[in-house]
Amino acid sequence: MPVSIRGATENNLRDVDVEIGDGLTVVTGVSGSGKTTLVFDTLYHEASCRFLDVFGNASPSQRLPPANVRTISGLGPAIAVGQNLLNRNPGSTLATASGLHPLLRLLYSRFGDRHCSVCATPVTVLTTDETVDHLMRVAQHHPVTVVAPLVRATPGSHQTLLATLQREFSAELRVDGKPYRARRLDASRPHDIDIEIDQIEGRIPVQRARQVVDAVRKLGVHTLELRGENDTERLASAPVCATCGTWFEALEPVHFKLGCPHCEGSGCTRCADTGLFPEAAAVRWSDLRLPDLLALSVDAAAARLASTGLPSSAARLHREIDCRLDALHDVGLGYIALDRSSPSVSRGEAQRVRLAVALTSRLEDIIHVLDEPTIGQHPHDVARLLPAFRQLPGPVVYVEHDRVAGDGFRAGALCYASRGFSLHAATRVEATDRRRLEQLCRYVVRPPVASGRLRFVHAERLEFTLKTPWASEATGIQFDYGQ
């Protein structure tokens, strides 16, 4: 249903009647002609007023006054993306402003590869079934020795422990990598104590693999080692490092925005110079810490996401991240780093960030009001940006400003409203006004709104023939000097 405005008289508007349908509608004119008054002070203001009346709990003194218009029909909720959108918060970045940062924290906390924050050993916590399956797969590729690590790098003689273990595991007991021969250990030196559980190779029954895993669990250890010919793999069943024995807590998304308590966010060795919570700084996804991923540009991060596999349980998260990266790319921000500070972006870039957020919205039947989103853009880049406007659901009203200033007392009249590939307009002028009229109408034939030509039919008629990048999908509403 089109939005129908009748009798708009806000500020300098002179009883303007106009209809705005679905798709892209461009409102343009010289400075002071009333286009901002029509779009923001009338259309958007009335939409906000009605929304607050229906859903707001504000007192009568806090409600918005209605716009000066006779009637507006077909009006739904509206979202405005203006120019003065610079965020001065130094903690705000492109990732936080676009809604990517919470999703990336979830990605790292749920699907990142954890490492010990003390010794950097990879840490993976597996259930019993997952351990059994992994053991069977490894045994099919090469022979392995399953070892239960009881003591790691701990000084002492360990006489009581060794005497107990020797009675039951005399052949399997290993101290510092060698068979134990009832010798006395040097109590001042650190020692390792292991029990070799089994040696397996090739395809083995599930029952045997489970028996091996259960034998390790019965010894009271939460880690088993799979020792091959050239390497050793450690599998943990509890949140504990298999190398140094450091216990760690469950990692939540909130940990990825907490500062390091040791350096107070400034960076030292405990947090790998990231300033993050140490356990969060030790998590990697695609071999990158979170700050390393945020240092990538939008396009580079999208390529990294596409090339890194994620489990099926991460499909929804993958789509949400991909959707936001695509939206930032579509509005021409693919070159900006995700950790770019919001106060450092230009006004045009800040507006396009807001536009990207609108593109990822699931809301329907929303009127999107854009205030010159192509500001600072080259005409070539504008042609790439226009398809993004069409992706917005519902009517899209786009205000295009002009550099020429006009006389306020002659502004506020609708010159023409047309839809189509060819736009024609006529204005009553005197022959001596030709130079002035060319100056006032120059914005019609300049990029990014349109390109084309203008010619005089006769002394009182000026005809425009335009080629618009959006062809027949756009509506042009031009405000000029009314007679």
Descriptors:
483 residues, alpha+beta, Rossmann fold, ABC transporter ATPase like fold, Ribulose 1,5 Bisphosphate Carboxylase/Oxygenase, 13 helices
Task: Explain how this protein is built.
This protein is an alpha+beta fold and 483 residues long. Among the domains are: 3-83 and 400-418, 3-Layer(aba) Sandwich (Rossmann fold), CATH 3.40.50.300; 88-113 and 284-344, ABC transporter ATPase  like domain (ABC transporter ATPase like fold, Up-down Bundle); 122-236, Ribosomal protein L1/L10, rRNA-binding domain (Ribulose 1,5 Bisphosphate Carboxylase/Oxygenase), CATH 3.30.190.20. The protein has 13 helices and 19 strands. The protein has helices at residues 35-55, 94-97, 100-111, 128-141, 159-169, 206-218, 278-281, 290-294, 298-307, 315-330, 347-359, 379-391, 434-440, and strands at residues 3-8, 16-20, 23-29, 69-73, 78-81, 114-115, 122-123, 144-155, 173-175, 178-179, 190-200, 223-227, 232-236, 367-371, 395-400, 413-419, 451-458, 461-467, 474-480. A 6-stranded mixed β-sheet has the order 5-14-15-3-19-16, with helices on both faces. Strands 10-9-11-8-12-13 form a 6-stranded antiparallel β-sheet. Strand 9 (173-175) and strand 10 (178-179) form a beta hairpin. The longest helix has 21 residues, at 35-55. The chain is elongated, with a radius of gyration of 34 Å. It starts with a strand and ends with a strand.
